[in-house]
Amino acid sequence: MSLKELKAIPYQPVADSPAVRYYTDWNAFEPYLENPAPPVQLGWDDDALRLLNLKPDLILKPTPLKDKPELPEASSKRVLAFHLNTLNSQVNVFLRDTSYTILVPKPREGVLAAHLSVRATGNSTLNVLLLSPADAEGLNTLSIDVEVDTASTLRLNYIIRDSYRAPSAIFQRTRLDKDSRLETFLIGSRGRMTHMEMNQLLEGEASEAETVALLAAGKFSRITLETSAETRAPRTEISIRGLGFANEGFIAHKGFARARRGAMESRLEVRSRLIPLSPTSRVYAAPVLEIESDEPSYAAHSVAMGPLDPEHIFYIESRGFNEAEAVRLLVKSMYASLISRMRGSSLYQDALRLLLEELGL
Amino acid sequence: MSIPVPIEELALPQYDISSITYKPRIQLKGRISRSTIEELSRSKREPEWMLRLRLRSLELFEKLPTPNWLVGVEELDLEELTHYIQPDVERVSSWDQLPSEIRRVYEKLGLPEIEARVLSGLAAQFESENIYLSFKKFLEEKGVILMDMSEAVIKYPDLVKKYFMRVFPPSDHKFAALHGAVWSGGVFLYVPPGVRVEAPIEAFFFVASELEAQFEHTLIVADEGSFIHFIEGCAAPLFKKYSFHDGMVEIYAHRNSHVKFTTVQNWSKNLINFNNKRAILEEGAVVEWAEGSLGSKVSYVYPSVILKGRGSRASIYNITLAKGKTWKDSGAKAYHLAPETSSEVVSKSISAQGGVAVYRGLVKMARGARNSKAAVKCDSLLLDTESKAYTYPKNEIEEDDALVVHEATTGRLSEDALFYAQSRGLTEDEARRLLVIGYVGDILKNLPFEYQVVFRRVLELEFEELGGYG
Amino acid sequence: MVELEVSNLYVKVEGREIIRGVSFHVGGGKITVIVGPNGSGKSSLLLSIMGHPRYTVTQGKILLNGEDISSLKPHERARKGIFLAFQNPPELPGVNILSFLTEAASKLGRPSDIGAVYASLQAVGLPKEYSDRNVNEGFSGGEKKRLELAQAFMLDPSVVMLDEPDSGLDIEGLRMLSRLVRDLASRGKAVLLVSHNPKTLEYISPDKVLVLVSGRIALEGGIEVVRKIESEGFPVIAE
Q1: Which single residue of B91, B128, B168, C229 has CA 20 to 30 Å from C30?
Q2: pLDDT number for residue B30
């Protein structure tokens, strides 16, 4: 595909009404689209890895390609088209009742465009780590196709702390079979421009997809998270919860929940809580509900954006904590209360520190 | 038929009645040329600045892209749309010419014959009725200017020029530009400082002929400390000749003024309706938009408020019915640009028989909107498996001392509530009707009482035939 | 012995003057009760002493052992030994009671082990398992009040202010409250209690009663003040 053809594709399909705006700073990707180069010096942040107490089972690197994956949306998303065109790493992962950790390294220069094909059966956990050195300047694009087998459970954990200097884009699609369950836990902290699209298709009856996303954007960080889930099968459940704090950074959370015909007695909810901690912070929330019949038994979304409750801060200060300590306590507790919803893992507690560090707390 | 069929079910093609009475004065085909606009402006004896505004809008109309988010407008080729700019169409000139089904609907609605005549277009006769004349006199004495827009352009050019399409510029989007080029009819309302008009101005009865227009422009200017309540439209079904409507309402609320703008619309189902509505609020001003949208086939209406002045407040209430193959796209936009501002949006839609109700909203808290609040509640009720509800809100916060909450629920009538109502003696249909009316109840109470009554009755009629499924 | 003195205090909130020239002092080992009609400024007075940001001292002083604390931040006042049991304690989702109390206690240099937490909970009749819960989350009104008192025990302040600790309590609760309050006083603390309910005072036996009306002290004395109010109502203060 030539650069000209690439540039003919819109960044993202969007209605061109006057109020439209891109939440993602696509300019950050342009230099790589114009000059794609192979990845040089793949590296990661070893301290962060040690903090999480995880040993990678696989570290991505350039590989020969088997057949190119089918990414139908590439025809309407420029960066995804570029990714498909530039693909230089491909891995198939089959998980059966096991836990597996994949480390996605960041190139110092150039582009690492990797595709993961994952099939999960039984009770499995997949950790995807993107822990970039703070000053790496290469681009990461990652596409992930996940299939969760009948009556299986997959816990999918993303821990992302990207570089200040370069962007990353992650496109994930998941298909859930009958009676399967997907628990996605995502921690997104630092990054020049981290664009993530997580898509879940609940095809099997009684499947469940629960997503908890914890985001933190300090100065210079921009995070755009699109979490979308669609069901057309009966008795399915979709729950998407996003909690983000911006301390001079930028966070956008788009949460889509869609029920097509056939989703009898299904339940869908999207909840977004975004909190600006300082005057130049920016937080955007766009929760979407598309319900195409009266079959679901529950479909709702809610957004709450605003500062921390000053009454709560005062209460904590009255017990001897100073303002910074009170804010830290509240932020940490709010993150922690979402973590407690996910079945226990110390990984989450450790990952919390990455978030607090990003916020300067 | 023994049951009057709600208006959109009537098999009458659009021009059955009009073929007898309709005489187009100016018929526009193909592209809208400069000379057409010039002729239009000349025939209205407009000042130079208005002609220039129209021409500039025409240029913009030609330049701006056709929005790709429209549904139902692909069928309409704008370039070939015939514009009935001069609303000189004669409506049904006698009560007897009205189809019996329509008359029966009016009877069922319990409308007095006087009002029914108005609805059927006998406005000219109606405007001479005494009670309305004395109210008009009262307004004049207070210095309130209420007249059709074209007249106002000639009589009060400086006043109109200050505001006309300053609240909603033609550059905003293609249909705003179209409107700017070919607007005709509509109402100009100016309320002087400190004047409070407590009784609502029911525009339908005053200037009905003007509001029949396809591209009507309503401009309301509330000067400092004034109060006005303007109601347009009516809940009873209305037959429209044209199939494309692109109206505009601009409200400029000066310091500490209070404007309530209520629209009740039940237009025929052959209609594609755009209505560009926006208000600018200065310090301490209050604007309340209330919309009850029952008819039309496709509609795009997003009342918007720009909270420019400190302490200004706005509320936007919407009831939308999408019944049958309709696409009702509605919503609200609130831009908070100043401190201590607040906005409240409550939107309730009902979809049935394949109708699609869409909510599009935007709440923006700009830097500087300190201590401001926005609360949005948008609920959708789906009455069967074919109906759909799409909700697309956007919330953008750039101020750390502002609060935005948004909640939306899409669902069906509660089985428990239906059972409870039935256990108290209501039939299933009655229970359904009761709950549907109850669902919109809290917004309905923002309409003046008579409108509530008619609205409720219209809803009930709409749902009379919806019984027996479950 | 600790001494809290409020001297000719004027306080404004949201542009309105809510405390207008209030002076009194509370000494260690003594119980002072403030009563008054709704809106008289009782809670505001306690919140001002604790340093709530929305309240501004426009005149006068708040002296703790002779030191003016009116410009100190809330946490600084807490570290100097001031404690407020809130009238409507907020729920803090996700904030675990055990870790909150141990951290707060250790900041104040008090015993901060799990045993101390259990002891404080037990002292107010809350099961020690409550330490696993989050602060006030899902607590009934009475339980919230008890948790406030448990915190007073844990943090061992020298001035204990209680904002309507008696509202919503039954006889048993009132008895427990008065026992705890007398215990605090007997340990040398200065206790300042706002009450709505003259009945409470029959249990508590204050050393001093202050009647606050429209932001001013209208009447002052011992328990006899209460009987006077019961028979004559609150005094009216001319504006």
Answers
A1: C229
A2: 52
CA distance B180 to B171: 9
CA atoms of C114 and C135, how far apart (whole Å): 16
A27 burial via Cβ count (<10 Å: 0-12, 13-18, 19+): exposed
CA angle A210, A214, A220 (to 5 degrees): 145
* Least confident span in A89-103, B129-143, B402-416, C103-117: B129-143
As a whole number of angstroms, the distance between CA C203 and CA C175 comes to 7
C151 CB within 8 Å of a chain A CB: yes
From its phi and psi, is residue B284 left (phi > 0), alpha (psi between -120 and 50) or beta?
Answer: left
Which chains form contacts with chain C, at 3 or more CB pairs under 8 Å? A
Q: Do chains C and B touch (3 or more CB pairs under 8 A)?
A: no
The answer to whether the Cα torsion of B154, B159, B160, B161 is positive or negative is: positive
Q: Quick one: closest CA in A to C89, which residue?
A: A315
User: Can you spell out the DSSP letters for A78-99?
Assistant: HHHHHHHHH--EEEEEEEES-E
Chain B: list its partners (3+ Cβ pairs within 8 Å).
A
CA distance A82 to chain C (A): 42
Q: What is the pLDDT of residue B435?
A: 85
- Position with higher pLDDT, C131 vs C234: C131
C92 contacts in chain A (CB < 8 Å) = 312, 315-316, 330, 333
- Measured CA to CA, the distance from residue A281 to residue A273 in angstroms comes to 14
pLDDT for position B63: 86
- Interface of A to B at Cβ within 8 Å reads 15-19, 261, 274, 276-307
Residue-averaged pLDDT of chain B: 78
Task: Please state the φ and ψ torsions of residue A42, each to the nearest 5 degrees.
Answer: -70, 130
How much is the pLDDT for B117? 55
- d(Cα C190, Cα C25) in Å, to the nearest integer? 10
pLDDT at B87 over 50: no
